[in-house]
Structures are given as structure tokens and as C-alpha cells.
Fold Importin-13.
Amino acid sequence: PLCCARNKETPCVLSGFLYAALHQLYYDPNIDNKNMAQKWLMQAQVSPQAWQFCWALLSPEKVPEIQYFGASALHTKISRYWSDIPSDQYESLKTQLFSQIACFSSSSKMVLTRLCVALASLALNTMPEAWPGAVAEMVRVFQEEGGGVDGRARCLALLEMLSVMSEEFQTSPLLLTVLLQVRGALGREWGAVSPLLQQLLRRADSPGAVKARVLRCLSSWVLLDVPLNESEDLVHDSFSALTDPELFDTAVEAIVNAISQPDSQRYVNTLLKMVPRVLALQEQLREAVQTGDMETCHGICRIAVTLGENHSRTLLEQVDHWQSFLALVNMIMFCTGVPGHYPVNETTSSLTLTFWYTLQDEIMSFESDKQAVYLQVYRPVYFQLVDVLLHKAQFPSDQEYESWSSDEKEQFRIYRVDISDTLMYVYEMLGAELLSNLYEKLGRLLTNTEQPTSWQHIEALLYGFQSIAETIDVNYSDVIPGLIGLIPRISINNVQLADTVMFTIGALAEWLADHPVMLSSVLPLVLQALGNPDLSVSSVSTLKKICRECKYDLPPYATNIVAVSQVRELHTSQCMWLMQALGFLLSALPVEDILRNLHSLITPYIQQLEKLADETPNPSNKLAIIHILGLLSNLFTTLDISKQDDESADSSAPPVKAALPPPGPNPVVVVLQQVFALIQTVLSKWLNDSQVVEAVCAIFEKSVKTLLHDFAPMVSQLSEMLGQMYSTIPQAPALDLTRQMVHIFASQTDHFPPIKALFELVTSVTLSIFQQGPRDHPDIVDSFMQLQAQALKRKPDLFLSEGLDVKAVFHCGVLSLKFPEAPTVKSTCLFFTELLPHCSDVPPLARVVQEDGKLLMQALLEGVGGGASRSLMDQFAEVLFSLNKHCFSLLAMWLKEALQPPGFPSSRVTAEQKDNFSHQILRRERVNKRRVKDIVKEFTLLCRGLHGTEYAAEY
Ligand SMILES: *[C@@H]1O[C@H](CO)[C@@H](O)[C@H](O)[C@H]1NC(C)=O
Ligand SMILES: *[C@@H]1O[C@H](CO)[C@@H](O)[C@H](O)[C@H]1NC(C)=O
Ligand SMILES: *[C@@H]1O[C@H](CO)[C@@H](O)[C@H](O)[C@H]1NC(C)=O
Ligand SMILES: *[C@@H]1O[C@H](CO)[C@@H](O)[C@H](O)[C@H]1NC(C)=O
């Protein structure tokens, strides 16, 4: 054999380059040189010469780095360039590899592994035809005595080989059909592998390293669909190996892999025999827990959970063995409740949560009489689970918690969320009794004066309650009043507990709306918490929920709530929530009270804004201004007095307190009018700052959205301001607000004149932008097209005006169709689909369509022909459909003319295909929108040369 013949001359010419490059790769300190060498070597590796030089590199006098490169090159050639090798050389390649492996089995492990990978690759390429029984042959060859190489080393090499083989198989680039054949062949070879493994594992004199390899080999071979009954003995041996600390991890891996094999549930008897083996591990588990051996604990629980999770159905169905399965479930319960805090003292309990979902699902999927039997056994188990989970959810002592890293605290938070989700799920099985159960426990804790109770215990019970109440309608649970009665008894001396109390109250907001008498016992707590900066998130979100759900019952508390809210220094987003909360709250008050509260609420902000408006603009006062404008927007988003009468009309028992809004201005309008001049001052300084403009527009946009027609008194003022803003510096938010005004007020005679003036002004300003080159402002063009579409929809009369250059607007539309920004093109298509129906009733529109419609036609065809993104084809089809519906005879003429030029809209379509397209589009009586979309889709694929391709199909 090549490598063992020490002084034999190597047959191939090796340029010094190779060694130089390897030297550079390993020893050159310069990283660029290293990279260059690596690149060069990669190329050398795949070159045809590699077949020769790799053997030379492996010769024994070379250093391991060079030998390693040779072995890698060999593997690369075999796995990626297999077709280079003539089939009559398979045999000699195999022999050479075997002998190299024998040589290296007692020297470099690194090189040996690469060689084994190469042989594995060879076997995978030649199985099953060219090398049937490859595995059996390997086993035989490796076991033959001789060569002076020690038996143990050869044995390890063989095991390495077998493991690598299966691992190599998992990542093999073979085609699926070949893969399946090879997999089948490998599976059949298990018969050759398994006796060897068994023998090695059972021999008392096998060194630990050999046994560890055996287990690793087993782990990877069971993944090749080895039937569980045929690996059964080895799995039992693996269980025995668990007592050996050196073998523990690999044994766990092997067992877990074997029992989670997809078809393992077919071997019911084998599985049943596993259960006592798993149960027998409990002693070892307890010991591990006592000695704080987290790894052992984790491994044993993994085995129990895998068996339970993968086979709960199978094992549940073996009713004769119900006790042993129940014992397994209890063992998993022990794993769930393993002592110590996650994630610091243990990492095991989180492993088990999915098991509980699976088991519950299986039980609930039995038909009802069977289910009843199982429930009898398992309901108590799940009640116990709730206790265990709530125990695990408890915070550690303050001192311990302080010592945790922020990462550990975050992991614990997520763990609690997982527990919360599990409880919610378990509620489906246990029902209202679960809430009563929690309530009783809490009651006992809070009324027990003999023993001091930890806040952690109380917190966890409330947390469990809140997890359920947050998503489930607790209306029919009769323990809620009792719970609310208990809350004030909790002595809240801790932030986490206080947060949980807040969230619990928040979770009950809907229930409180139905039981308003209870508000008085919880609201003071919320208001008090509002004063604590540490509780701002939980208290503000709870207040917001209560204000939203219970606003009609809150008027007596309103003044107090507003007063408490004012003294708060909060984080920006909580300020915004708080404003929304107050908006809800004020909505239910009589108008004069709203005004009074609004006054005291926003006066400080207005004063601040006045001051800021006076200052010279700089980044910090900009943020302050945007903040105050944001507060107003949020307040006006939820302050909606119109719902007062709606609500009372809906409800069967109209709340008397919700008085009808008296005639008179809406309070929001009153406030807006008061601050209008101030806002104008702000704008005058900040007009070229898009964020401030956006914030100003947002205030009005939110107000218009909630106030609707009540906004009327502001229409002319706001129209004028918007017109000024937009003609000074055109920006998209002004157009969006204009569109909203058009939407609500354009069809009202009273408001038509200011709206009309504004519409004409912004249109003419935008048209001048188009003259100067609109490409820099796709957002303005987008908003402009939407505005035009809205105007056409709500008030086509706007286009009758002398003051509007309809033709120019149309041309802008044609230009915008060719924009690369998809949203802009979408809005433009919408504009045309709104425009075309008015060809008959709005003469100026009729004229422009008649005169310039052909331009539109061309632009559409250009887009379909490949100019526009394929995702927009439905929108283009809508415009074509609209043309077909509203200007049919013109469409026929335009299509014919536009499609005339050869090569338009794409050189890929023939004259026949174009004819066919127009013919289909023009089949008037048959055409519907869906059909036009299909026709356009088909034609656009032809134009793009994608017709019939996979790319087309998957779209
Ligand atoms: C394993 O089960 C299969 C049937 O699924 C059977 O044909 C085979 O003989 C069994 N093997 C052993 C070792 O029991
Ligand atoms: C089998 O159990 C393991 C470990 O619990 C789990 O990751 C895997 O998803 C389970 N497989 C099935 C099919 O349930
Ligand atoms: C958890 O680990 C911490 C730190 O290692 C230790 O102080 C604490 O006593 C442990 N707690 C339990 C219950 O084992
Ligand atoms: C909840 O219960 C209250 C009082 O028992 C009742 O008035 C209310 O209509 C119920 N709500 C729902 C949503 O069932």
C-alpha cells in the first residue's frame, strides 16, 4: 500500500507551488496572502491533476497539514467530480483508500476523518449497484488482523467511517430518487453494522472511547429509517450506558434519535418495553437534582419527554398499560417542576411544555365517552400541572433576582410568557373550575394571618389569573367579584407584584364594563400606580383599557383621573397612550365638562408650544413641538362624542348618564379653533420640515376622521391654511389631508366653494411641479393621483371648472403610469378607472379622453409590454376593462393603431399574438373583469418571454 511503503517515490509531478501555497495558507501572517493561497488551493483541488497529487500529499513523511489537504482534495473529487472516474477504476480507488485508512488509523485523527469521509462518499456513489454490500465489506476489511496496526485504532476508524457514512448521507447532493435507493440499501446494511456495535458495546474490556463511538454511530444510523424493533437491543444497551458519565451524552442522543424516528410508533411492543426503562431512570434523576447536576437532569428529562411527546397517542391507547403511562406522565411532571429557578438553576422545565399541549390534544381528540374516562384520570394531573407551573413562574428572592444578568431576566420573562400560554391552553380543558381553584388559593393566602406569605407566591397566582382572563371571556365565572374584592388586600410592596396587579385589572376591563359598581374598588389603585414611574407601562395601559371599555361609568372619576394624569413624566409612547385614554374618558362627559377638562389638560401644553414657537428652530425644540402635536393627535383620535347616542341606541338598557350631545360646537372644534393661530405660527417657522408638517396634518386628519361632519366649522379655515402651505412648499401630507376633506365635504353645498378653491390651487401647484420634472417627488405624485381619484368619485363637478386644466391633469396621469414606483402607478391606475366612467357626463373629461386617449392606450400597452412590474398587471387590466366598458368604440380604434408598429409593445410578440390580444379584449359581450385580468396576464408573459416558464407559473 502506498503510504506504508516509506521511501517509495511518488509517481506524480508535484510543482513546488502546491507546497508553497500550503505553507502560505498555514504560516503566512499576512491575511491577504492567506486568502490568495486558499483561493489558489481551492482551484488546485478541483483540477484534473488533483487525482494524482492527492496521493503524493498523503505520504507519511509529509506534515499532517499537507496530508490533510490531500485527503480533503480526495474527498472533494469523489463527492463532486465522481463522473471523472472511469468505472473500471472504482476497485483500485477503493483498495487505495482502504489501505490509506489503515495507515492513518494510528496517526493523525484529522486526516483519518477526511479519508473516512472520502470512502463514505465513494460507497454512497457506488451503492447499491457497483458496490453492493459496501458496509458489510468495510466491516470485514477493518476487522481483519494485520499490518501491525493496532486493533483498537482500526476499530475506532471503522466506527468513524460508519458514523461519517450516515452523516455524509444526510448532506449528500444526490438526487432524491437515488437518495431513496441508497437509503434503502444503507438500511439493509444495518444487519452488518448492528452485531458489531452490540458486540463492542457489551464487551467489558471495550474502552470508553470505543463505546462512545458506538453510540454516536448508533445515533446517526437510526436516522436512516432503521426500524425501531431492529435497533431495540442497542437502545436497551444505551439505557445501560447512561450510568457511565463518560457515555451519558451520546447515549441520550442515541435513545432520543431512536424513539423519535418518524415510524417508530409502529413498534408498539418495543415502545412499551421502553417505558419501564425510562421510569427506572427516576432514581438517577433524583440524585442528579439533589447534587445539582444540571446536565444529567436535562438528559434524562429529554428522554422522558421525547417518549411522551412522540408517542402519547400510542401509549394512551394501550389501556392495559395505563398505569405505566401515568407513571411516565408523573415523571415528566417532576421534570416540569424540577427545583430551582429557570434559567439560572435549571434549564429543563421549559423542555416539557410542548408535551403538555400534545397530551391534552390527544385526550381531547378521543370521542366523548372515551374522553370522559381519560379526563377522569388526567384532570387532576392538569390541576397539579397548574400548581407546578405557577410555582415555576414565581420570581426568585429580590436579592437573587438582583444578581441575574439582563439576559437571564429576559429569558425568565419569555419563560413566563410560555407558561402563560400553556395555562391559557389548559383552561380549555379545565374550564371555569380552574379560575375558582386559583381564586381559592389566592383567598387562602391573603386571609392567612398566621404564616407570612411571600409576594412571589401571590404574584404568581395573579399572573395565572391574568393569563387566562386576558384572552377568555370571564363573564360567566362567578369568582371575579371575589377576586376584585381581594385585590385591595394585597400589600403591594414590590414592582413586579404591582405590575401584575395592574395587568390583572386591565384584563378585567371588559368585565368591569358590565359590572361598573366594582370600578370604585380598583380605580384608586390604578390612579395611585400612575404616580409611580416604575409602573408607568402597566398602569397607563390598564387605564387606557378601562377608559375604553368603561367610559360611560367613569364621569364621576373624570376630574380626578385628568388631574392625576397631568402630573406625570412619562416615556413618549406612554404619553400618547395616556392621551388616548383621556380621549376615551372625556368622550362620555357632558360638553361643558369636556371643555373644562380639556382646558385644564391641554393649557400647559399650549403654553409650552407658544414658547417653542417663539424660539429659533433647532433640533431639540423640533422634537418638543412634534411631541406636543402628537399628544393632541392622540387625544383627538379617541375623543369622540358622537358615539354617545349610538351606544345608547344599541344597548338594551340605555345608560341614562350618557346625555345626548347638546347642540353647539364640538369641543374638539372649539379647541382646534383656539389653537389654530398658534399652529399657523409654528408652521410659518417649520414649513420646510416635513416631520413637523406631517405632525400638523396628523392633528387635523385624526380630528376629521373622528369628527366627520362636526368638523364643518373649520373647513374654510383649514382649506385656506392648506392652500398656503402647499403653495409655499408642496408636500404629500397636505394633499392627503385635502383628499380627506374632499371625501367628507366636497358634496356639501355649503362647503363646496372653499374645497373647490383648495382643490384647484393644489392641482395647479402640482401641475407646475410636473412641468419642472416630477421624478424627484414620487410621493407627491402618488398623493396627487389619489386626490384626483377621490375628487372624481365624490364630486366630478370639480372637473367642470374653468380653473382646472383637465387636459394637463390627464397628461400627468399618463406620465405617472410610467413611474418606477409601484404605489404611484397603482394610484394612477385608480385615477383612470375613476375618470373613464365620466366620459359621458362630464364634457371636459369626455373631450380630453377623445383627444388624448390614445396616449393612455400606448402607456398602458407599454406597461403591459414589460415597462411596468408584473405585480401591477391587475391594475392595468382594470383600466383596460374600464375603457372597454365606457369608451368601447374608441378603444377598438386605439388598440388597432397602437399595436400597429412592429416590435411594440415588445419585440417578442408577433402580429398574430397582438391581433389575438385585441380580439380578446374587444369581445364585448363576453368580457368581464376577471377575464380581462387573465388576458392581460397571458399577454404580458408573452411580451416578457416568460410564457410557459416555471417562473410564470409560480407567480
Ligand atoms: C421488525 O418488524 C418487522 C415488521 O414491521 C418484521 O418483519 C421484522 O422481522 C421485525 N424484526 C425483528 C428483529 O423483530
Ligand atoms: C418528538 O420529541 C421531540 C423532543 O421532545 C420533539 O422535538 C419532536 O418534535 C417530537 N416529534 C414528534 C413527531 O412529535
Ligand atoms: C440557584 O442558583 C443561585 C446561584 O447559583 C443560588 O444562589 C441559589 O441558591 C440557587 N437556588 C436554588 C433553589 O437552587
Ligand atoms: C356579562 O354579565 C352581565 C351581568 O351578569 C350581563 O349584564 C352582561 O350582558 C354579560 N355580558 C356578556 C358579554 O355576556
About this structure: Residues 176-202 form the longest helix (27 residues). Residues 769 and 777 are 9 Å apart (CA to CA). The pocket of 2-acetamido-2-deoxy-beta-D-glucopyranose (ligand 1) is lined by residues 227, 229-230 (CB under 6 Å). The chain is about 70% helix and 0% strand.
